């Protein structure tokens, strides 16, 4: 066992019950193009590799790699990419064969990793991630809820988001300070995804939620005036948290009109 490094967000999963549930949720099949973010000591890697026969793992910590390689040798074909996942081009990695991305993510960069995956969503079949429970709750939140915000809207427009189960701190070594949860993200078919520029959409969503207590008319000042918001069938006096994800697409279209 290696010493966990805090600056790499290392919390190694050791409880077999939860590992089994994660592997069952992923249900790997031979031939799947599995890519794991942050294999660590291989807690998830080896059971997945056993079922899939081959997989790719992206690990930033060079110290963990020799042992991973050694232990994988008897199980299957493990390609290890030593890199920061944010620098990995999933579209290039896929070579036209969509990937299944999995990982017990380093929590210090969980949101950047989610947005990075969204950029490459055309190269991805599905994603299964362990994250802070609070982040999973925000991802899956419905309009009207206090925690519904940027992450909920951006992810739900592109993916079907399913919170699967909670994992307590004691399942990890060392235990994190918070509860964790496993989430499944399935990219929506292309025809159901927003047909607007992702950067503009994000600009609207970001502005709308920047000050949650402001009305849309005020929050979007400089981007859209009240009549343009009303022309979308949306009350300029409404607050961002009451809008459905699709409403933000309408607002973005109005912006570009
Ligand atoms: N999968 C292992 C498990 O479940 O026991 C380890 C999970 S641990 C929460 C996160 C892993 O991500 C660590 O192995 C850490 O070194 C790795 N990691 C941290 N930052 C990373 C980055 N930017 N790119 C790739 N891997 C990273």
TrEMBL record:
Main location: cytoplasm
EC number: 2.1.1.182
S-adenosyl-L-methionine in keyword set: yes
NCBIfam families registered for this protein in UniProt: ksgA
Protein's name according to its UniProt entry: Ribosomal RNA small subunit methyltransferase A
Residues bound to S-adenosyl-L-methionine: 11, 13, 38, 59, 84, 104
Top-level EC class: transferase
Species this chain originates from: Oleiagrimonas citrea
